[in-house]
Amino acid sequence: MTVSARPTAAPQPAGPATHVRTALATVCISGTLEDKLDAAAAAGFDGVEIFEPDLVASSSSPAAVRSRCADLGLSIDLYQPFRDFDDVRPEVVEANLRRAERKFDVMEQLGTDLVLVCSSCIPTAVAEDDRIAEQLHRLAVRAAARGIRVAYEALAWGREVNTYERSWEVVRRADHPALGLCVDSFHILSRGSDPAGIRDIPADKLFFLQLADAPMLDMDVLQWSRHHRLFPGQGTFDLPAFLGHVLSAGYDGPLSLEVFNDVFRQSDPRRTAVDARRSLLALAEATTDRVPPAVRGTLASTALPPEPTLRGYAFAELAVDAGSAPALAATLAALGFTHSGQHRSKPVQLWRYGAATVLVNASGRPGAAVAAIGVETADPGAALRRAEALLAPAHPQPHGPAEADLSAVAAPDGTEVFFCRTGADDATSWLSDFVPTGTGTDAGDAGITHIDHVALTQPFDSFDEAALFYRGLLGLRTQHASEVAAPFGLVRNRAVSDAARTVRLCLSVSVLRRGEWGPAVTDPQHVAFATDDVLAVARAARAAGAPVLDIPDNYYDDLDARLAPPPDLLARMRELGVLLDRDADGEFLHFYTEVLGGRVFFEVVQRVAGYAGYGELNGPVRMAAHRRQRARAGDR
Amino acid sequence: MTVSARPTAAPQPAGPATHVRTALATVCISGTLEDKLDAAAAAGFDGVEIFEPDLVASSSSPAAVRSRCADLGLSIDLYQPFRDFDDVRPEVVEANLRRAERKFDVMEQLGTDLVLVCSSCIPTAVAEDDRIAEQLHRLAVRAAARGIRVAYEALAWGREVNTYERSWEVVRRADHPALGLCVDSFHILSRGSDPAGIRDIPADKLFFLQLADAPMLDMDVLQWSRHHRLFPGQGTFDLPAFLGHVLSAGYDGPLSLEVFNDVFRQSDPRRTAVDARRSLLALAEATTDRVPPAVRGTLASTALPPEPTLRGYAFAELAVDAGSAPALAATLAALGFTHSGQHRSKPVQLWRYGAATVLVNASGRPGAAVAAIGVETADPGAALRRAEALLAPAHPQPHGPAEADLSAVAAPDGTEVFFCRTGADDATSWLSDFVPTGTGTDAGDAGITHIDHVALTQPFDSFDEAALFYRGLLGLRTQHASEVAAPFGLVRNRAVSDAARTVRLCLSVSVLRRGEWGPAVTDPQHVAFATDDVLAVARAARAAGAPVLDIPDNYYDDLDARLAPPPDLLARMRELGVLLDRDADGEFLHFYTEVLGGRVFFEVVQRVAGYAGYGELNGPVRMAAHRRQRARAGDR
């Protein structure tokens, strides 16, 4: 239970080869070709697609790349892309055939036999199916003579051929055994095509499968494709259905990722490759019930322990330095928490109010941070095995002989995630590590009942990775997403939770990575506690000296104009610093504390009726108030 | 001629008020309301639009904001926005009228009399013109009773009212003196509406004008508007034509900027405000010939000294540390340059080859950088006065009594820009500061002839600012823009030049601000020299020991496949490390040196026929090669 550094080491490659082979296009990740191959192998991929510009810029000869891949245990499944082959100008077709022969030379040295040919995008693209088929047939004859096969792909923005139905029609007419199809989920789903028709394509003509997810964006499809693709499970495409169709058709090649993403292109490739492979493992699991029994057996070879059923937060752990610990403890006490336990071997205090448990770990680095969360589940061991199968970096905890064997995994932002079965009699109850202080139990009044949510500011490079991590490991689905105009730049929020809403997590990130302007920490992390009477808790907390955040009068004047709460309620909210949000389902009343120890604060929330949001609209007001607080304190 | 820090101090506000008033919406820039008002005043704006969320999050009362603005010399020209007023539900209209009265209270305390009301975007927006007009009339009656006027604006994504023609029709029918129009260039031009019709709207109904530019993007107009607006002159809208129509109609209110931009929202507001005001000064100049003579007089009150006519680069200056200077000097010598002059009072060497002049200033910080450029113009004094009128931070140069009075301005990235009249007999010739070394003149052979271009990597926050800076000061227009997939992330390029192509400048930036992965300096700056025989220069340079950058064989194999240059040419290029690009206009042959002193390198280019590009397609190959070079040298 120490503050962990942001993990960068990738887990070990999976040992025995699974039956579902996974591949990664080198274009998905950042770095030189050598960086990319190393990262793909370290993440456990079986193969790669070599993206031509990566090879062209490399000082390694194709033969050296082949040798390096062999050493790394990577097959080279595809060489790509070959663009704008078909053309109405005969002399250009001749030049393109020459160009292809030169590329076949390269492929021969690489030791790969499959090349991706995209449909033409230029004004001189051929319009007639038979004529395209004839030109592709010529290419296939040349390829076959070299022992090479051609996978033809319809780009969504192809000049003439831009649907998989049309590319299949052309391939069918060309009728050459060395010519087949590459189907790419982005090109098909971005156009709204129905992928069910893929089931009707003969398996021996499905040469290759490229997978990519994407957020639903209303923009030019080429720009959408080149900048905003995501790994499966990070976007909105129904990839289990798509993959189900392709596997049901009999495709038995690798599941290969081709994702163009502005962030992934410049992030640490070792991390991105792990994220990528995790997405395929989760996709294979989600696709199992979409395929015939025969195929199901193949997918089952990658089977994961089942998704855990969660039962709320066991605890949130704050790592603080010795200087910050008193302010944290005093604030928890003023909120009504009791210091009810002390760890047997570590400087960790256990604070409790109702079912809300906060651990204050004074062995932390300077400042304060949310270092860990514990979630309740019936079988922590199975949950941990699932997490490890999904390539989560494990953080085995050192523990004394009488202490629980408690293990955690590290989330993309370095937060540790513990799987807990609180109250169990056996050694898996983490509570047995704590000695009761005997200084009383909680007051039993109408105060704080449990942890409502934890809010974690994400590193810029891992916002989408985090969503997939929590979804895969904990089954947390995106509940809603929002974007708010904060004082120092736009902030993107994504709230995830289990189906029963017992574990809610708010992830946030700047829309653009921040520069030097603005506070060094623009959006600290926080833990939000639930109550059934936020006004009473706020009043008691203020009376007890809690540093409740002051909210400006302008906010209440605007609230009056917008939502017109009853005047006496408005007056009490104004007095206490309680904020309000309202939607069609209900209301949300909440207050914040000041930022403590540099990077953490608390929130207390009351949900009225069916309100399921997080009051994000009030976020900018809170951020400006925190900014004033910290400016007064002399922080940057 | 020292390396300057990136300037952050804004220039002083303009002294006497001009007749064309300029205003800035607080939403354009980053920070708290207090930060924004300070920045607007420091940049010399006459007034502001107060964006409601900025006020709501502020702890300053409206009366305190009024007082602060008065102290800063800023008028509050508009309070905005008031959204979703008209509604088919009578009870909502009543609530909205109450909401408006509360906002009128705020405006009274602010001391402003104009409120922006946007067309409704909700499903319950009113569809019938007469009914909208009736509701707006009710609002106008209430406003008039408080001494307030309402400026009604058609949002481009308004549910029913989304064109200025429709908003004018509604305002016309409402027929109340307290109700007029706000016209916003983005909402009108993003939809492709013809703004000429604005001329037919009575001047007394044009209550307010909001100006924004934007790049041409094929995407959802709401997202386009909220994230990608730019200041006038940074995008592709014809704003001089637009403003010409509005002024010709008789509008005499402020020119006010309302720009939502992800970068500006999180950049230093003092810099952004200067950029913003510069855009209006340049726009006023560009609009002068679009308006009737009477209005022209008003615009002339902001008249700038004329755009300079450029005649090429006078010099490029490299600032180097003592450790790097020998490598720089040796490389220039190996390229054929002669050390032909020494500064009278500073450790600056003058190197020359043909008309290419490079100053090597050994008083620089660690490493090396392009510290300054000098451009030739007939009247350096007028060019400097124009630059200062356009708010460029001046960098007066300390000089001895016998030295030229040479002044520079600082570009957004800190590069100094000198205006030079080389060869003049008077003291304005900067060359008189240099004592000839007598070590010979240039060889007079077919080597380097002049500086072809200078390439400057821009700080992330100032890419668009830089384009406007060089356009405004030097008349450099965007020649072309491109985006390349570089090994460590996407890179955006924008080449600007004068009409005669004597001063070409390449600006580049990462598409996203980079994080920690990848080399610390991913894209060093460079100076490119022109030659008529790049192969000869490359051969001589290699023979003389210049560190010419090695280009991998894979590149030449790909070049053979793609462009099929004659085999003997290809062989020589491969031997010498010369690269090739080809387009419809001609060919481009070029080679690079290694990176010297950490952040600078040289390029030698040969343009064949009408080729006007910069070989950006070869950029990723160059970047990967530089990465290998620096990895060998142990740099990060």
Automatic annotation (TrEMBL), chains A, B:
Keyword DNA damage assigned: no
Record: residues binding Mg(2+): H453, H526, E603
Keyword check for Lyase: yes
Protein known as: 3-dehydroshikimate dehydratase
EC number from the UniProt entry: 4.2.1.118
Keywords linked to the UniProt accession: Isomerase, Lyase, Metal-binding, Pyruvate
Organism: Pseudonocardia broussonetiae
The family this protein is said to belong to: Belongs to the bacterial two-domain DSD family.
Amino-acid positions noted as binding a divalent metal cation in the UniProt annotation, renumbered to this chain: E153, D184, Q210, E258
Physiological role: Catalyzes the conversion of 3-dehydroshikimate to protocatechuate (3,4-dihydroxybenzoate), a common intermediate of quinate and shikimate degradation pathways.
SUPFAM superfamilies for the chain: Glyoxalase/Bleomycin resistance protein/Dihydroxybiphenyl dioxygenase, Xylose isomerase-like
Main EC class the enzyme belongs to: lyase
Gene Ontology MF: a single term: metal ion binding
